[in-house]
Amino acid sequence: LSMATRNHMDITTPPLPPIAPEVLRVAEHRHRRGLMYPFIYHVLTKGEIKVPVCIEDECNTELPPAVVLFRTSRQYVYGVLFSVAETQRRMERLAVRKRIPVETHPVIVKEWSAYKGKSPQTPELVSALAFREWTCPNLKKLWLGKAVEDKNRRMRAFLACMKSDTPGMLNPANVPTHLLLMCCVLR
Fold first, then answer.
1. 129 located within any domain
2. Which residue of 1, 41, 87, 93 lies most exposed, with the fewest beta carbons within 10 A?
3. 3-state class of 173 per DSSP?
4. Beta strand ranges found along the chain (DSSP E)
5. DSSP-based three-state secondary structure for 132
6. Does the pLDDT value for residue 10 go beyond 80?
7. Which domain holds residue 40?
8. What is one term from the GO cellular component aspect held by the record (predicted)?
């Protein structure tokens, strides 16, 4: 192995939180059938992702690289995938009951990416984030829930990851579904 490759093996992250077996089964099924973004299963099982290289505008130095620009959205996605909000809420309730300080362990994902000024041989360690405005349900409820309310929660989780969960965007009468992604990006 090259020296750069050997160095990245020294980077350790805390263990990933346990994932419900049903969720892993669904993730593996969707992964094998090509029904979801291929890196989701890898993030759930390995805690790392290889972010594809993008063509960047060299003339516009004010605009950060796409990897950096969309990092916060990915951090919220990691928070949803690992049910960070629900874990924090459970730990807070336990701490109040036992009268001890709240102790939560961060969920760290290794992001492998290349952009100007960053070596592709070393990963960046990125923390999963929970939404401040609302407590996102766990991944099992989001993926496997069949009620209309579950569909609304999935939409809210998506909009919150894109920092677009405003009352106007949450109302389906205001924004047609086929224009939702464009509105999130333009917002």
1. yes
2. 1
3. coil
4. 48-50, 108-112, 124-127
5. coil
6. no
7. 21-140
8. nucleus
